[in-house]
Amino acid sequence: MLQTRRLPSAAWRCTAQAPTQLYWGRRRWYVARSADNKRGEMDISTIPPERIRNFSIIAHIDHGKSTLADRLLELTGVISKTGKNKQVLDKLKVERERGITVKAQSVSMFYEYKGERYLLNLVDTPGHVDFSYEVSRSLAACQGAILLVDAAQGIQAQTVANFYLAFGQGLEVIPMLNKVDLPTAEPERAAKQIESAFEIEASEILHISAKTGLGVDQVLPAVIEQSPPPPGSLGKPLKALLFDTWYDTYVGVVCLMAVKDGSVRRGDRIVSSHSGTKYEVAEVGVMYPEQTPTTLLQVGQVGYVICNMKSIAEAHVGDTFYQDKHPVEALPGFVPAKSMVFAGVFPIDAGEFDRLNESIQKLTLNDSSVSVHKETSAALGQGWRLGFLGTLHMDVFRQRLEEEYDTNILVTSPTVPYQIKYCDGTSKFIRTPADFPDASYMQDHVEYTMEPFVVATLIFPEKYLGAMLELCTTHRGELQNHTFIDELRVMLKCRLPMAEIVTDFFDKLKSKSQGFASFDYEEAGYDASDLVKMEVLLNGEAVDALAAVMHKSSVVTAGREIAGRLKDVIRRQLFDIIIQTAANGKIVARETVKQLRKNVTAKCYGGDITRKMKLLNKQKEGKKRMKRIGKVELPQEAFLSIMTRSGNGGSGSDS
Ligand SMILES: Nc1nc2c(ncn2[C@@H]2O[C@H](COP(=O)(O)OP(=O)(O)OP(=O)(O)O)[C@@H](O)[C@H]2O)c(=O)[nH]1
């Protein structure tokens, strides 16, 4: 009877993605338990906080977080072993395609241990350096963290950064060595590194293989034994931390909350500490692995709340919610993420502006670390200046905008925020290169210019020390120190301009170390720097969207490179196109794209009209992503070519 009963609407929608899970396995048992609940809501009210564990898996990129999460979900019956639901946590298409975790996800499991039933909430975290903001947010909902280290690679830059994030937030760190099945695994060596870097006894480290399942049965007992249960009291009024949100096309805004005190259920009226706005709770539940309604969420639990939030801008990550008429002191919240890479985004077709505006708003709800400002460019029209945490973050956002919202956009070359100190004592941040003052204006009005710096941590085998030092110095880096983390691996700290690491620094790091170096960085404030604006002129007209800011020392090389690259990517048109780069009021380089109409049907002799049409249509299709600037048509690659130059300043992709 219970298997056939209609589940609430949200659960029905889930069945489209996970057809068997809501009916078979443990799920059936829980629905059965709530026989008294006509809505078929899962009853988790009988699980006291002592039998709840909220934990996270932190690791360097590719060390196996998602694989381990899948194994744990299989072990607890949340997903089947047949493979249909693999990589539950890597939900976004872009994540699956790129094999990286971008958005933190959460999932609940039930587990029997020593005759007791435990509710375990796993909050996944991204591994890439750009997303450390997401990591600290997820950790705020947890009491424990599995520190997963690849037994073949040993500790990497992101392992170090994530360990300190978790440690700093007072979490119990549970170390584990993964991939011990690999022939190249050296678990003893990796354990020694963990011992020396984090002062954790090698004997306390579990050895597992998330891929083969070896030792995975010991993971959850270790979490239960070592991670403390969530603090808080059921008797106190509701205090819930909003730590993640997303937009669901069916139900609107979904809030992921960690209940720190009290409880919340359908029909409750809750209030946002941030805005004072009141909401009526329409549904609460846990991610199992999709949204599964429960009768309530109570102290210690992590789950979702749907509460008629109308506008996507209403959900403030880090906000505290309380029951109406029972105000509580707000939790500390989160320091807003700082955007360090800015790029202009413009619709290819100006008529798409409103639709694109809506898509950007929806995407930024799922990613509040993106800053959004409207921008108008003389060349590209109305658009936005978006701020990102890094270039991978930017790339992922662009991909999601194009794929999930089917929008046709043009993204300008990214830049870091520069600071101008004027002679009158005032200062200003510049996020758009076109706004950077010209040389003549600088002479009379600007005292000096500043750029942001970072302290980078690089970990690599000793034999690459020379190459890594050279890489840092050619990118205007200043070596701070280098230490050996064991007899073969070096950890190097270096201070670099932020603009240098948003160029192709990461690609070079990987190629110069044959993929063995890992990299992480933290912001290190602003310093004075000799900066100039490089302008690009097409047929004598300056194109504001192609301007870049760079260090004085690289003007000549970069100017030539940009002109050369633009020549390669701009298609021949019906007239000559003269490309010039200029800085300090002087032309640095000049290139010409000779006129020519590419006859794509030239090879089609005879009268096969369908083939000719096909080729002409293909050519038309290619032109869709062009933007007409003056008379010249510029492809997206023209904007990307500015950022992939090898000189200083500017930016590039680190993915
Ligand atoms: N041999 C072996 N391979 C593993 C093991 N665990 C994970 N892998 C492989 O390592 C690669 C990366 O695993 P993921 O689980 O995607 O790594 P991740 O840490 O989630 O990656 P991000 O989400 O990008 O940070 C995949 O190809 C896995 O199949 C293991 O125990 N042994």
From TrEMBL:
Recorded family membership: Belongs to the TRAFAC class translation factor GTPase superfamily. Classic translation factor GTPase family. LepA subfamily.
Membrane topology, record value: Peripheral membrane protein
Segments forming domain Tr-type G: 50-231
HAMAP family: LepA (MF_00071)
Record organism: Coemansia thaxteri
Binding site for GTP: 59-66, 124-128, 178-181
NCBIfam families: lepA (TIGR01393), small_GTP (TIGR00231)
Protein name per Swiss-Prot or TrEMBL: Translation factor guf1 mitochondrial
Residue spans crossing the bilayer: none
GO cellular component, one term: mitochondrial matrix
GO molecular function, one term: GTP binding
Keywords: GTP-binding, Hydrolase, Membrane, Mitochondrion, Mitochondrion inner membrane, Nucleotide-binding, Protein biosynthesis
